[in-house]
Structure formats: structure tokens, C-alpha cells
Amino acid sequence: MIEKSKINYEKAVLIGLITQFQDVEKSNEYLDELEFLTYTAGGEVLKRFVQKMDSPNSKTFMGSGKIEEVREYIEKHDVGLAIFDDELTPAQQKNIERILECKIIDRTNLILDIFAQRAKTSYARTQVELAQYQYLLPRLTGLWTHLERQRGGIGMRGPGETEIETDRRIVRDRIALLKKKLAKVDKQMSVQRGNRGALVRVALVGYTNVGKSTLMNVISKSKVFAENKLFATLDTTVRKVVIGNLPFLLSDTVGFIRKLPTQLVESFKSTLDEVTEADLLLHVVDISHPSFEHHIESVNTILGEIEASDKPTIMIFNKIDAYKPETIDEDDLVTEKTKAHYTLEEWKQTWMNRENGESIFISALKKENLDEFRKTVYKKVKEIHITRFPYNQFLYDDYME
Ligand SMILES: Nc1nc2c(ncn2[C@@H]2O[C@H](COP(=O)(O)OP(=O)(O)OP(=O)(O)O)[C@@H](O)[C@H]2O)c(=O)[nH]1
Ligand SMILES: [Mg+2]
Where are the alpha helices (H) located in 85-211, listed in sequence order? Predict the structure, then answer.
């Protein structure tokens, strides 16, 4: 049902709003991310359309003038795909589709589509399929039936393609079946985790594309797939790592993103168990990304949702090699200093002064500052290890001390 396809870049336009909750800057940031998502899914963005509105139009999302502008552009440039940054109601979707006569998808749909492309193991595929059906269920209104010729490609992978005409009951049955299937695997996995003994468990968490897998590879000398696209990792990998003379388990798992579809968080609950059950979290951040502070917030929100907020956490600021603060010329007396102008030193000061937890600044790619990373992780893991193996304490000489 889920299709892994070779990619011919599909022409797309993006549509977003500027509202009282979302100023120009924020809207731009979201669209940047949506463009990256589109690229990851195999699309090429030709143009962005942004409209300022108090709230979305209940019938067509955008106003009538704007949608006409989009329609003309789409027709002229032969675009087959319009991607909206926000979730559309089934009614909006239907109306817009009638006007634009192309495929209409929203951010959730796009993320689900990427997950469908990326899911490798049968376990991940089952989770994605479940999320897709849950997304589809309230939208089963024969949405795409008039788009026969447009089938295939972004947003059309998965259950949307064939099951539209069928009735909700079938989808509900399928959802129940998938849940049962997952529950069975969950049980096996939970037993597997139980068999790993009392070793300290450390989990890499963070926004997508921050370098979790790269760090995992450097630290554990393993070969986890890493690339400059979103959601390179869907399945969890666990490796035994030894620092000095201290063994522990390190896991690398799916990255987070803003507006992560709730269906996905739910479906991936068991993948995220690795995080929920970890003793220590390494929260990896891409400090070279202009919105890294927003990313931290989103990750913390999701950690809250899976009840993993109060775990001991070390903040790992990665990609310091790529960090470039904005500069102010000496004779420029107008520009005010903002966080965008902070040097790495200033960021370090800011984060080191926070009460809870530690922070380390590294480059996983250039292998910068990894000694400090190892030292800090070692110290923290040892603290936990000692509570578990109190009589073994003497076996562990201090590392590099
Ligand atoms: N400049 C720079 N790039 C890095 C660094 N670490 C990782 N990268 C790059 O960032 C991109 C994403 O790396 P991944 O390790 O796949 O990131 P991830 O967090 O596992 O991403 P997902 O699995 O997609 O959530 C790759 O192109 C890496 O080469 C770093 O320290 N500096
Ligand atoms: Mg990864």
C-alpha cells in the first residue's frame, strides 16, 4: 500500500498566511521549512503565495482575489500541486480543488507522505499506515475521485489512492487491525528491551536534521543513515557504546518537527518508547539554524506529550562549525544587537547559566569538542550507573581524570 518511488521533482506552489498569531517573519520561517519538506518529498517549489488575513476564509482558506492569482499562476506554469502550511477542512479542500484543479495537500499530508517514502521496516510501515488511515478517516468524502488523471506522486502515496471510494467501516476495520499488529510487536519489543539488562540507557532526541544520526555514528562507530533531508531516520537504532570503561546503550530515533501531526505522535508512540524509557536524554540542537530556539521549544513540547519532560537532559549544540552570527559594522549605530548577533561564546554563557542541566557545544561532522562531549556524558552516565550497580563502583576508574 505504501509506495517507495523514485523521484522526479514535481512542480509545486506553497500557500501560507500572515495572521495575528503569525507575523511575516514567522510565516516566512514556516514556509522555509515547508519548502524543505517539499524538497524532501520530491517536489520543487516554484512560488510562494502569502496572504495577510485575520483568520482563514472558511470556504477557500485564502480570499477570492488571492486564489484567482494562484489559479492563473498554476495554469500558466503547469503546476500540479498546491501545498498549504495549515490543515484544511474537508470543505475547504474540496472547494479549493474545484477552483485550482490540481492536487491540494497540507503540511500534515506532506509529512505523512515523507514518512511513507522513508519507512523501511515493516514495523515503521505499519505505524505510518496507521497514521495515514487516521488522517484519512475524517476526510473520507470522495475528495479525489474527480482527479483521476492526477493520481500518483506527492500526497497520493498510501491509502488515499485506492480506498477513497470505500466506506469508512473498512478504514475503521483496517485501523483496528493495524493497532492489533502493532500491539503484538510492541510486546516483543518491550521484552527485548527488558532483556538488555540494567545498562544505563541514553537517547538522542531533537528536531529533524540536527545531526543526531551523525553524532550516533561518530560516538558508536556505527553506520546509521544520515543525510541532509528531513526525517532521514524513522526506525530506532540502539548501540552499545563504551566510553573509557563504562558501557551504556545509546539510541537514535525519529526527529521531531513543528506542527507534528498528532496521528504521527500517537502512531509512533512505541518507537518513542525508547525515549520515554531512557535514563538520560541528549537533546541535540542545530545551532547554525536561525530558528534553533523555536526548534528547542517544539522538541520540549513533544517531550511533554510523551511524558519525558523531567528526565535528566544534556543540551548538545551541534554544527558549531557552520554557525555564523550576523555582524554589525562598527560605524553602524542604527542596527540593534539581537540574538542573531550573538557569538558562540555568548550563547555558551547564556546556556551555561541555566539552572537545570548541562550544555555542550560540538561539531559532530568536524569532530570538534568531542572529548568534552564524552567527558560530560561519561560523568552523567556514571552517576546513574552507580545508583544501579553500587558494589561495582570500584570497577570503574575515572575516565581521563
Ligand atoms: N556543518 C555541519 N553539518 C552537520 C553536522 N552534523 C551533522 N551535519 C549534517 O546535517 C545533516 C543531517 O544530519 P543527520 O545526522 O541525518 O541528522 P538527524 O538529526 O539524524 O536527522 P533526521 O534523522 O532526519 O531527524 C547531514 O547533512 C549531516 O552531514 C555538523 O556538526 N556540522
Ligand atoms: Mg537521523
Answer: 90-100, 107-118, 122-136, 160-163, 168-195
Cα-Cα-Cα-Cα dihedral sign, residues 314, 320, 323, 329: positive
Gap from CA of 211 to ligand 1 centroid (Å)? 3
Query: What 3-state DSSP class applies to 226?
Result: coil
Contact 298, 304 (CB under 8 A): no
Alpha-carbon distances, residue 127 vs 212, 253, 308 (angstroms)? 22, 14, 21
User: Confidence class of residue 189 from pLDDT cuts 50, 70 and 90?
Assistant: confident
Q: Which of 132, 91, 77 is nearest to 268 (CA)?
A: 132
- The structure's pTM equals 0.83
Q: What is the atom index within ligand 1 of the atom nearest the CA of 256?
A: 25
CA distance linking residue 62 with residue 75, whole number of Å: 18
Contacts of 374 (CB under 8 A, 6+ apart): 219, 243, 399
Express each pLDDT in 249-299 by its tens digit: 999 888 888 877 777 777 777 778 889 989 999 999 999 999 999 999 999
Query: Which residues, chain by chain, have CB under 5 Å from ion ligand 2?
Result: 212-213, 232-233
> Three-state DSSP class for 45?
strand
**Best mutation site among 114, 205, 209 for ligand 1, i.e. most ligand atoms within 8 A of its Cβ?**
209
Coil vs helix vs strand at 53: coil
Q: What is the pLDDT of residues 7-22, one digit of tens each?
A: 578 999 999 999 888 8
Contact between 114 and 40 (Cβ < 8 Å): yes
